[in-house]
Amino acid sequence: MTGRSGRVRSETARVAILQATARIFGSRGYDHLTIEGVAAEAGVGKQTIYRWWHSKGELVADALLEGLLLPEPLLPPDTGDLRADLTTWLRDVFGLLQRPGGDDLVRSLAAAAAENADVGRRIRDSLGATSELAARLRTGVEAGQLPPGVAIEDFGDVLVGAVVLRALARTETDEAAAERLVSVVLGGAPQR
Amino acid sequence: MTGRSGRVRSETARVAILQATARIFGSRGYDHLTIEGVAAEAGVGKQTIYRWWHSKGELVADALLEGLLLPEPLLPPDTGDLRADLTTWLRDVFGLLQRPGGDDLVRSLAAAAAENADVGRRIRDSLGATSELAARLRTGVEAGQLPPGVAIEDFGDVLVGAVVLRALARTETDEAAAERLVSVVLGGAPQR
Amino acid sequence: MTGRSGRVRSETARVAILQATARIFGSRGYDHLTIEGVAAEAGVGKQTIYRWWHSKGELVADALLEGLLLPEPLLPPDTGDLRADLTTWLRDVFGLLQRPGGDDLVRSLAAAAAENADVGRRIRDSLGATSELAARLRTGVEAGQLPPGVAIEDFGDVLVGAVVLRALARTETDEAAAERLVSVVLGGAPQR
Amino acid sequence: MTGRSGRVRSETARVAILQATARIFGSRGYDHLTIEGVAAEAGVGKQTIYRWWHSKGELVADALLEGLLLPEPLLPPDTGDLRADLTTWLRDVFGLLQRPGGDDLVRSLAAAAAENADVGRRIRDSLGATSELAARLRTGVEAGQLPPGVAIEDFGDVLVGAVVLRALARTETDEAAAERLVSVVLGGAPQR
DNA sequence: CTCTAATCGAGACGGTACGTCGTGTCTTAGC
DNA sequence: GCTAAGACACGACGTACCGTCTCGATTAGAG
C-alpha cells in the first residue's frame, strides 16, 4: 500500500504548541496571538506549526477541541423548577464574564469563529445537543415544564446567542438581566 | 482671542475614506481591511486617517454609523399576527445571510465588534430600543400579544443573538429554523 | 576483531548525487545549489548526502574532481610558434566564456572556491603543473622559446588568473584581448 | 514637472547601513553577511534596506564604492627600477593577504563579485586604468622600461588576476612568489 | 541461515534568514 | 493647519534550507 516512512510526528511538540496557544490566547487574546509567538512560547520551529495547521484559526480550534481554552462547562442545577435553574445557570455564566478577562475570552472566541469555520463549528458543537444545558432542557421536557415539541437546540442557541451578543456589545450583565432573558424564553414577566 | 486658523478639515477626504472603508469591508471583510488599503483606495494620505480615527475599529464603527455597511434595515410587517410577523422578519434576515457574502458580512461585524468596543456598542444601538424590530414588539405589547411586563430589549437581543451565533457557527438557516426560533421565544410548538 | 559488518555504501546513490550536483550547478549556479535540491534531484535522502560530504562545497569539489563540472580541457596546439599557440588557446577559452552560461560557470566556481578551500585547491590542481597548458609551456622552454628558468606554474597562474578576473569583472573577452594578454606575458606589442 | 513630495531619504540611515555592511563584511565575510544582520547592526528596519538596495550584492558594491571595505590602496614606489618596484608592490599586496582575514577579504570580494555584476565592475574599476598600479606602469612606459605599445590595463589585470587566483586556490604567497610573478610579466628569470 | 549493524529513502524537528506587508510616526512640499 | 506623498523603525507573515534526528526497510558480512 502506501509507502509510509520518515520520522513520526512528535506528540511532545503537538502538545506544547496547543498549550502555548491556550496560554497566549487566554492572556493576550485572539488578535495578539501570533504564530511566531506560539512557536517561541512552545520552543518549536514555525514550520512545525505550519506543517500541521494552516492558520491560527485552526490552531485555536484545536486548542478549543482539547478543552484547553474554556473553563469547565457550567452545570445547570436540577431542582425541578426550570425557571429558577435556568436563571441560576445564566447568572453563573454572567459571573464568568465578569471575572477579569472573561468577556475578552468570549470576544476572542467570536473573533476566532469569525475567521475560521472550524472554530465556529466546534464552539457550536460544545454548546449544542451534547451540552449540559441541553440535558437540563430535555429533563424539563420530560417533566412537562416545556412543551413536548420544543426545539431544544434552538432554545440553547437563543440563550447562548444572547450571551455572545451581550459580550460583543459590551452590554452589562447583571442578575436582573439573567432573569429578564429567562423570562423571554419561558414566557411571563421576570420574577422581580 | 484663540489662535484659530489654518486649513479646515476636508469633507471630501472624510467621505472618501468612509466610502473606501465600506467598499473594502464589504468586498474583503474586516480582517483584510487595512489602513493602508483604505488610504490608497480613497486617494488619501495615511496620516489623514490617523489624524481623525485611532484604529480601524473606529473607522468601521463610523462607516457603520453612516449606514454605509448595512443594507436597509428590514421592516417586520404588522399584520396583527405577531408570530407570523416575527417569522417573516426572521426569514428575511436569513435571506440576507444566504445571499453571497451575507454571512461574511455578519461575521466581519462580529470580528470588528470583538476588537473594538465602539463597533459593538453601535451595532447594539442600531438593533436596540430604536430598531424596527423593537417598534413591532411594542405594538405587540399594546395589542396584548405579549405580556405587558416583557423586556423588549432583551427580546430583541435574544433573536439577534441567535442570528449572530448561527452565522458564527455556520449553522444552516432555513425557513423551518426561523419558525423554530420564533416558537422558542413566543412559546408553543412551531407551526409546521 | 573489529565489528565490521553492515550494509555497504551504495555506489548508485553516490553517482546519482554527484550527477545531480553537476546538473544543478550547471543550470542554476553555485548559490542556487542546495543540499535539499540535490537530494530531491538525485532521489536520495538528505542524510545520505550528509553522511559522506560535510558541505555543499565538498560536494562541488567532488563533482569537479570527477570531471562532471567542466567541459573537456582545452588543448593548446603545438605549431612551434608559442605566441600563436597561446593566443589560440586563450581565444578558445574566451570562446567557452562567451557560450551561454560559460561565464556563469566560471563565476560559480569562483564562488565555490571562495567558500570552500577544497574547491579552490582542486581547481588549482586541475590547472596547475599537470595541465595541458603547463605541458605546452614546458615544450616551449625546451624549444628555447621561453628562458630556461621561467616559473611555469606562475606563468599559468597569470593567464588563468586574468581569465577568472575578467569573468568576475564582466570584462569583454574578444580576440584582441587574447592577443594583448599573450603580449603581456611574452613581451613585445600585440601583433595587431 | 514631477509632483515630488513625501519625506526625503535619510542620510543617517544610508550611512549607518553601509557602515554596518562594511563592519560585518570585514569581520564575518560575505556569506555570513545577512540583510537582517545589517539591519540590526545599523539600527534600521529591513524595509529601509530593501527600499534602496535589491540584494546584498548591491549593498556590498556600494560599501565598496564608498571605500569602506578596502584598506588604503597600495602605492608602488618609483625608484626608476620597474622590476624592483613591481616586486615591492606585489610583496606588499601579499603582506595584506597574510594578515589575519586578509585572504578572507579577497575571497569574500570574489564571492560578492560572482554574485553581483556591480561588485565585479567596481572592483575592476578601482584596480583598472585609474589605479596606482596603472600610473606606475605608465611612467614605466615613458621611461622606456616597457615597450611603448604595451596594454597597461591588461598588464594590471594579469597581476591582479594572479593575486585573486592565489587567494581562491589558497596558494602560498611568499616573497619568492612575488619575484616569480614579476618575472613572468617582465620576462627573464627571477633575480634569486 | 540466522543475527547484527551500517546504509538507504523518507520526512519531522528546532532554527535562521528570506523578502513582503502592514502598523503607527515622522518629515517633506503644497495649498 | 490640513493635505498627499512617502520614508522610517518595527513586528509578523509564510517559505526555503539548514543540519540533526528518528522511522521502517534493505542488505551485506560474521557467526
Automatic annotation (TrEMBL), chains A, B, C, D:
<keyword id="KW-0804">Transcription</keyword>
<dbReference type="InterPro" id="IPR001647">
    <property type="entry name" value="HTH_TetR"/>
</dbReference>
<feature type="domain" description="HTH tetR-type">
    <location>
        <begin position="11"/>
        <end position="71"/>
    </location>
</feature>
<dbReference type="Pfam" id="PF00440">
    <property type="entry name" value="TetR_N"/>
</dbReference>
<dbReference type="Pfam" id="PF16859">
    <property type="entry name" value="TetR_C_11"/>
</dbReference>
<keyword id="KW-0238">DNA-binding</keyword>
<feature type="DNA-binding region" description="H-T-H motif">
    <location>
        <begin position="34"/>
        <end position="53"/>
    </location>
</feature>
<dbReference type="InterPro" id="IPR009057">
    <property type="entry name" value="Homeodomain-like_sf"/>
</dbReference>
<dbReference type="InterPro" id="IPR050109">
    <property type="entry name" value="HTH-type_TetR-like_transc_reg"/>
</dbReference>
<keyword id="KW-0805">Transcription regulation</keyword>
<dbReference type="InterPro" id="IPR036271">
    <property type="entry name" value="Tet_transcr_reg_TetR-rel_C_sf"/>
</dbReference>
<protein>
    <submittedName>
        <fullName>TetR/AcrR family transcriptional regulator</fullName>
    </submittedName>
</protein>
<dbReference type="InterPro" id="IPR011075">
    <property type="entry name" value="TetR_C"/>
</dbReference>
